[in-house]
Amino acid sequence: MTAVASHSFSGSARRAKLLLLAGGSALLCLAHPALAQTAPQAAEAEPEADIIVTGSLVQRNGFDTPTPVTVIGAETLSRVAAPNIADVINQMPSVRPSLTPTSTVNLGSLAAGNYIDLRGLGYQRTQVQVDGRRYVPTTPAGGVSISSIPQAMVNGIDIVTGGASAAYGSDAVAGVVNLRIDSRFKGFKGSVQGGISNYGDYENFLASASYGTSFMDDRLHLVVAAEASQNGGIRWLRDRPWSAKNPGTVSNPAYTVANGEPRLILTDNIRQTNVSYGGVITGVSFTPGNGSAITNILALPSYLKGIQFDTSGNAVPFAFGSLVTASTQVGGDGANGIADSLGAVPVNRYTGFGRLTFDASDAITLFGEFSYNKVTSEYLGLASAHQMSIRSDNVFLPAALRQTLAANNVATITVGRSVLDNARTVSNLDIETINALGGFNAKLGAGWTLDGSFSYGRTKNRATTSNNRITARYNLAVDAIDDPRTPGVVDPICRSTLTDPTNGCVPLNLIGENRYSDAALAYVNGTGFRLWDIKQKSAIMTLRGSPFDTWAGPVSIAAGGEYRELSVKTTSDPISTAQAFFGGGTIPYAGKVTVKEGFGEVMVPLAKDTSWAKDLSVDAAVRVTDYSTSGTVVTWKGGISYAINDSIRVRATRSRDIRAPGLEELFQAGSTSALSVFDPIVNDTYLVTAANQGNPNLTPEKADTFTAGLVLTPTFIPRLKLSVDYYKIELNNAIIALTPAAIVDRCYSGTSPQACPLIIRGGTDDRITRVLNGPVNLTSVKTSGIDVEAQYWFPIGEDRINLQALVTYIDNTSIFDGITLTQLGGSVEQPTVAAVGGNPHWKVNTHVSYVNPGFTLSVAARYIGGGAINRAYTTKDLDVLSVNGRVYFDLQGEVTLIENDDNRVALFGSIQNVFNKTPPITGVGGYGTTRALYDTLGRMFTAGVRFKF
């Protein structure tokens, strides 16, 4: 592998050079066709019309706002032809596709969802809106899945790529994604499409229909829509050739701190040394006085080393490969942990939407809206393993092995075994979302307007998990002996049954594969559920107008207030409540947060059509928010937009933004466990109770955001728009969950005094009795980079060529937890699934379309850069442990079959990832590659029909 190139310049000089380089490159790429074009000015409308967007409360066009805004129009949505709008948004370079059906297969709380992650700062720091209003969350953590929003009537998307909390409130740290509804649509339109992967899986289907009409002399408008979509998922990751090779990273046995060898090696055919499908002996403990326990397979005595159990439960040799460690090897026997994983979660989605708009007069418009959405999914849990403790007299062990164990005073052996055939969980998700909205728009005269609305939303998110081990029953069932009451007959029985004959225990045979009885599995495994009942009520009113004019034009203001109430009630089954399943479970909890907000924004023009300025304006916004849990916080924003002439505009913003803690972070009841901590007060290490739960003392995260950019609309290149923007976000008091040991250490070392309230002492010796192992405001995150957006089109006779380029350069992403600084910029690392992750330096999305009245043809190229697997590694590591990026080409075409008056029928088709480019092998997270960055589906074919009457 080749190392990622480094840049010798730094700081402001580096940013200036990058701005010039990115802007100049995009200008040259898009301007070249225009320089060769001598045709006269075309009269056609631009391919993506200018649309009022959500960059501020004072409405303006996206290229004119101080805060950068990317607009995804109806043409782009049609061109990509994705079964879910989230697939289009996730292609934007400013978005990290962290949480999709292909990347959340090991995170049940977010599975089957599509959560947008702007800047890679975590999905909870991106606010999602529908028509400029908050939508009800999908989870108590606060995220809104795009899959929970009806999409049939969405005709555009606005992405605010900068801090916007002063305008829109909490969560808008990285920006806002707003889905726009076509509420005045007339006619009947729809589409039907289907798709499949190059490997014959991930079958997907979408059917959508919308109808709009008007009554009462066009004063009453009705819009209704329905949609159904499915994708079949990918059952095994091994169904992709790159993953079937079981690629990833293994430890390098030759590595030492001094010799410069890389600590890890990227390779194929990785197997586990401590797990096999029938079981492999990995550890041993002796009877008291006959030796200490051995927990490393490589240190086992000769009579136990290299013994596994075949399908029939016989003790046979375990083949070791190369580069053998205590847990991994290359080649040989052992479980195939990567290829056994789930490739993609299947998702079924059904939605209904209706809106009624009534123009009560020329000045007053009333509206009501209702949406219903249901998402279901059934998928396999993790391909996990278990290290079983088996007593030496277990009846299911081969007789010869039992004799050997007895002869060597062995009390128990540890057997590493896959759970694929007996305890791989099956999860069923049922997520139902409703959202009702009513409101008005009023024209008050003299350019003043008043808007108000009230919304009620509710999500019932239920997860049912079957084949779930019940810990106490498993421990009894796996401890099986030959019934001493029937000598001479092999008669398996649970040891516990001898002293408790009515306990119902059924002995479980996990020596070998599929050798257990159905009755044993029925005894050991159970079904649990978790239900989140989330409700949101929101009332908002906004006054807009112009109180007076300056010498440069009218001053525009917006002011208003908002009330929001968000609550959750979580319930679960009795076994989960008692934490009796092998993986614990959800303990019921409930909580509510009320929010009161007042906000205002003003735009003041300072110059207009002067010799030194085409126009100059400043923008300022402030929002005061009172949380029932954490008190009052103030967010603000200041911006400037300076058009030097018709061709050059400069813009900049500075803002303070926040993210309030989610309901789960505040109120989760969690679970308890016993963990060891070192107590410096008594100078002793001992076990304490770790209470894994929410933290009601959390305060909002605070971010300082700066953006500055240049917008070019050169008159000598008509129809070209180019923007280049620098951004820098510094997030403080970010919420993170620590271990009890880390909490105690940070409190008493003085590193993090805010951790001290999480420690509870008691008893006569005042020792620690309990540590609240919940989230705390401890982390700081920084990220910075440059965005480039360019649009250009030119006519060719009656036809036209559209070009667009979106480029993001990520200069830095880092996390500081008070002790350790982790650099993630220019890396493909994924420390956690749902929070801040690595981002390559470069991301690019370009497309060119040929548009004819009878057909269109589009080619897109998407580039996701490479980087270091982990930037904490040494220079020698980075020479080896870095990967190259990937370029994906997409092809889309559409042919019009019927077009007359307002009627149109067209066939379309697309091929995503035309050349079936496989992802780079990074080994991140044990899935071979970094699923939050690269395409793991492969080539996808889609075909369908669109119609409008």
UniProtKB/TrEMBL annotation:
PANTHER family in alphabetical order: PTHR47234, SECRETIN_TONB SHORT N-TERMINAL DOMAIN-CONTAINING PROTEIN
Q: Which residues form a coiled coil?
A: none
Question: Entry's InterPro entries?
Answer: Beta-barrel_TonB, Beta-barrel_TonB_sf, Plug_dom, Plug_dom_sf, TonB-dep_rcpt-like, TonB_rcpt_CS
Q: Which UniProt keywords apply?
A: Cell outer membrane, Membrane, Receptor, Signal, TonB box, Transmembrane, Transmembrane beta strand, Transport
Q: Where is the TonB-dependent receptor plug domain?
A: 64-176
Coarse class of the primary localization is membrane
Instruction: Please give the organism.
Output: Sphingomonas colocasiae
Q: Which domain of life is it from?
A: Bacteria
Per its record, how is this protein called by name?
TonB-dependent receptor
| Short sequence motif TonB C-terminal box: positions | 932-949
Q: Where does it localize?
A: Cell outer membrane
List the membrane topology term(s).
Multi-pass membrane protein
Give residue ranges for domain TonB-dependent receptor-like beta-barrel.
421-913
Q: Which family does it belong to?
A: Belongs to the TonB-dependent receptor family.
